[in-house]
Amino acid sequence: MTARRTILVIDDDPAMRDSLPFLLDVNGFDVATFETANDLLHHFAEDAVDCIVSDIRMPGMSGLELVRKLKADAIICPVILITGHGDVALAVEAMKAGAVDFIEKPFEDEALLRAIRGALQAQSETQADGVARRSAEGRLADLSPRECDVLRGLVAGKINKVIAHELGISPRTVEVYRANLMAKTNVRSMSELMRIAIAAGL
Prior knowledge:
Layout: E1 6-10, H1 14-26, E2 30-34, H2 37-41, E3 51-55, H3 63-72, E4 79-83, H4 88-97, E5 101-104, H5 109-140, H6 145-155, H7 160-167, H8 171-185, H9 190-199
Parallel strand pairs: 1-2, 1-3, 3-4, 4-5
Helix pairs in contact: 3-4, 5-9, 6-7, 6-8, 7-8
GO molecular function: DNA binding
Pfam family, one: Response_reg
InterPro entries: CheY-like_superfamily, Sig_transdc_resp-reg_C-effctor, Sig_transdc_resp-reg_receiver, Tscrpt_reg_LuxR_C, WH-like_DNA-bd_sf
């Protein structure tokens, strides 16, 4: 059974705080609602959160200010903003600040569900990329600075002779470094070594 993802909804309109949780619940999400962004911020210390759906204009902290606050506090959670007519420019500004999407009122139920599913998918892919990068970086952690130089040359598609010339060493020494690279990273082929190097951001 797939775990239900947790969506937090912020809206000062009681009708929205009633209707959105019902919609999300019947579509397989756990939901908590808040009247203000400040109320929501206290929630982060308590539970895991997968996505936030927030009105952009609210008493106190606005949706834009919330996006900036989460970013400043290094809290990684996708935020989808709901905007009334005339708020589009503000919503675009919020997306530039880090919001993942905005939806204009009135909106179809499917539009919100599509935005949430897209945000969760993008978040999962980003987290997977982060895990792969950390794993790759770990496998390269024991390389010497010179071995890293040789690896960068290989990633750039350069042949041994060119790498040797650029580093001021002999082609034979480059071959030794290549052998060391494969041994230290425990790979069986150059293609596997290239995949690790690229995943690590070299």
